[in-house]
Amino acid sequence: MIVDDEKGAREGLFLMLKAYEQLEVVGICTNGLEAITQIDTLRPDLVFLDIQMPQVSGFEVVNSLEPPLPAFVFITAFDEYALKAFEVHALDYLLKPFTKKRLDEAIAHVSMFLDKEKGVPKETRRIVKLPADNASSDGVVDSDELSDKLVIKTDGRLYFIEWTSVIWIQAYDYYVKVHTKDKYYLVRESMKSMEARLPAPAFLRVHKSGIVNTSFIHSIEPVANNDHLITLQGGVKVKSSRSYSASLQKWLM
Questions:
Q1: In sequence order, what are the residues at sequence separation of 6 or more whose Cβ sits closer than 8 angstroms to the Cβ of residue 156?
Q2: Torsion angle of the four alpha carbons 142, 82, 48, 163, in this order, in degrees rounded to the nearest 10
Q3: How is the chain split into domains, by residue range?
Q4: DSSP reduced 3-state for 174
Q5: In Å, how far are 19, 135, 174, 253 from 130, measured between CA atoms?
Q6: Cα–Cα nearest to 251, from 199, 204, 192
Q7: In angstroms, rounded to a whole number, what is the distance separating the alpha carbons of residues 210 and 2?
């Protein structure tokens, strides 16, 4: 199913999807209210859903549906919605205008997911819904509501990185370096902003210029002035300063 309030976007996507023999477009909706009704009636396996629509947004569509939910690929011209899209367990996120190659990648991802779900009872599929906001009443984010990926933008592209592959994060002038097992990503973002997006206690701020994934800590060695030297798996050494010693001690307890 296709849901988009822009006629050109609807027609363009419909023509692109005709090239995929494994897909059948069972419905096209022009707004969120229509989408809620049609999804409930037609029960599609997959919905290409625009986010920013008048009256009812794509996120509100998802939150209005009763499980079991279809798989969703969000489509929008605004990349600031990427993180929220993955909090509702979207399978992919397409930034307008997108290429045939990018659509190929999304379709491949969707196909793999749907193949895995063939053996899962329909009534138990995709029951996760978007909370009214991303925090509980006391302001603490529940772990179940967190995306399992870190969404970053660099080099004009969005990257979706598994939390478990991030080893540590390093301040670098007006940027941060996100170090993973295979490479690093240079992202224009402050350490404070990045820290706020990381799930605790899996990630620990140990220095004004360093955040570590605690699962990669190999050893901790006390040094002068109540500082510590943290050695990560692979041999990388990160200094923990006195200013952050309380957080480190709390994690060690």
A1: none
A2: -60
A3: 2-124, 154-252
A4: coil
A5: 32, 11, 33, 34
A6: 204
A7: 43
198 token code pair = 């990381």
How many beta carbons lie within 10 A of that of residue 3, not counting itself? Answer: 28
pLDDT values of the chain reduced to their tens digit, one per residue, 253 residues: 999 999 999 999 999 999 998 889 999 999 999 999 999 899 999 999 999 898 888 988 988 887 778 889 999 887 777 666 666 667 888 888 899 999 998 888 888 877 765 554 444 333 333 333 333 333 333 333 335 678 887 776 778 888 899 999 999 877 899 999 889 998 888 888 888 888 888 999 999 999 999 999 999 998 887 789 999 998 999 999 888 888 888 888 7
User: Which CATH class for the 2-124 domain?
Assistant: alpha beta
Are the CB atoms for 199 and 163 separated by under 8 Å? yes
The label of the residue with tokens 């605690």 reads 214
**Residue found by looking up tokens 């029960």 in the block:** 43
Residues 43, 48, 50, 53, Cα dihedral to 10°: -30
Q: For residue 64, give both structure tokens.
A: 């209005």
* The token pair that represents 81 in the structure block: 């919605």
Q: What is the pTM of this model?
A: 0.50
CB 158 within 8 A of CB 152: yes
Out of 2.40.50.1020, 1.10.287.110, 2.60.120.20, 3.40.190.10, select the CATH number for domain 154-252.
2.40.50.1020
